[in-house]
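Dear colleague,

Following up on yesterday's call, I've attached the two folding results inline so they're easy to grep. Please treat them as preliminary; we haven't cross-checked anything against experimental data yet. The first protein's sequence and structure tokens come first.
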Amino acid sequence: MAVSTADLYDEHGDALQSCSLQLRHVGGRRQFTGPVATIRCHRDNALVKATLATPGEGRVLVVDGGGSLESALVGDLIAGSAVSNGWAGVVVHGAVRDSVAIGGLPLGVLALGTNPRKSAKDGVGEVDVPVAFGGVEFFPGATLWADEDGVLVTRP
């Protein structure tokens, strides 16, 4: 990512959405960008695991976990799968685990926080649907930029 989110916002203004949540950088890449793919799930990461095991082609998976910090939706094995499959990053409106290991991976990962507790594996949730948090609507195919200053997303 050659351009900072601050510079992008200065150039494009309200043509971009700015996420107001103060997400925590967990991954080894603090700057990342790519087309958005989405999942909505609550305390169940089976769809996250399955999606990140497919070719990412430089995309960013946005996971709306409803802001729950009760269990983790991404751990080191799932993050490692994302790296192996060419994903640029993962943004989690919820918790992750294995944060030290994830920090060593060449993957952008943002989350509300951490929790060592595993999530369910029932496959409950929705894939490729618009999700919203932090004042932003994330929709499949939008472009997302993330760095130390925050997250910007193209408008629908």
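Below is the second protein, in the same order (sequence, then structure):
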Amino acid sequence: MTPFPAADLDRRFYAFAVDRLLAWTVDGVAGYLAWRLLVEDGAVLAGVAVVVAVVVLVYAALAVVLGRTGTSPGNAALDLRVVGAATGAPIGVGPALRRQAVLGLATLPTFGLGTATLAWTAAMDPSGRRHGWHDRLAGSEVVDVRPVPADPEPVVEAPRSVVNLTALRLVPAPPPPSTPPPSAPPTIAAPPRPSAPPPPPPAAPPPSSEPLRTPQHRAAPGPGEPAPAALTEPPRRQLGYPLVPEPTGPTARWRVSFDSGESFVVEGLTLVGRRPEPRPGETPRQLLALRSEDMSLSKTHAQFQVVADGVLVAMDRGSTNGSVLLRRGVARDLAAGRPTTLLDGDHVRFGDRMMTVSREP
């Protein structure tokens, strides 16, 4: 069953009106040309045949687009999608042709009686998913794919590691251990010369007005001096814009599965898109190229990986159409450049591709 809510009847009517207006415009132009070029010259049957062929071709083209992509010009304008009621995927060309045939018959000159009958069957659907008679015949339903605004839920399985970069830079290095100076061997002092006065004691150095340097500005340690903590800290890898630590021990196994058939266990930074490419200095473990029927998937759309505390995080890479997290039937946009924790059973939509997240024992 699709995680999207069923579309309202008014939005479905507006999408239906847009599709019919487009089809009737093309049919009207074809009828006018057939009249001027054929009927007026006496070829009445040829003119009628041309008009009928154009009408059938327009409805067939709309059905093919609807069956393969789940959308039409009217549905795309109102963020609606026609999908299978049981699968949530496009219904295919055959069911789409049956569905379009019923809609075409309903729009015959019956003073709106046919269209009103289909709307009444959708409104009286006992399942609440607004399946009209044409939807039941094709096994389809119309869903609303607009993101539903919702407050983020504080659902995190394990505490996430937070790296405070400002505090890390301002922590001073530990002072070197104090060791007593080595004792010099005893020497026999020579008798003082009466003509040579003793040298004056060295003046104390003036207090320095230079500000306290942070560990990044200190010079390299000399021999015998311990290195500052900021210079010996292991490097950290970058997940997009924020810094997160890499896993250092056994972590949870997270599997991702796509509606296009790909399925694998996440073992490192993975980039997703039509032709994903890493940024300079970025070393992803896997580049996953996916098909996009309507070109709604960007070249490098998003990324995901398992971080140090064993959770799976995903992040949109500033894609054109964005990424949507679907959790328990609620849709929420992924902010570009901000990692989001994923849970077992979540769905993430990248353009027209859907990813399912599962945690393996």
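For the second protein, one point worth flagging: DSSP finds eight helices and 13 strands in the chain.

Best wishes,
A.L.
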